[in-house]
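Let us practice reading a record.
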Amino acid sequence: MKSKDLYKQLSDKEILDRYRQSNDRELLGILLQRYTILLLGVCLKYLKNEEEAKDAVQQVFSKVISEIDKYPVDHFKSWIKESLLDLLEGAIKEIQPNQQQCISLFYIQKKSYRQISEETGFSLMQIKSFIQNGKRNLRLLITKKWNKNAS
């Protein structure tokens, strides 16, 4: 097994180049490990459940492993984060429009319930309900996608 300390000094691009030359999956694992906490934090922000966030990160890792050789990736951090956001945005598009709107306004645009109410005309209770149900539906969709891809 290679010394992981050796790779701490290397940039993402250098590790990715070495991976492409050797096809050594351990190198890809080192890159994924670098961004686990970042991806987990983004997932927790949206999903509010640690196990489901971990599942979503694993789904992104699976996508990266299967697609890394298909595309020229110059900026690994941006690419992996974009892969995660694609997963989350894809799931957001599948929930009900009212839930979608409130979740986007609250989590993405950082608006308060009062601001969302003023913009949409929904009551504060409706907004709370749309966000709670939307988060639950997002978790279900992401878990469903994870289970489908794991099969």
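A brief commentary: The chain has one domain: 10-150.
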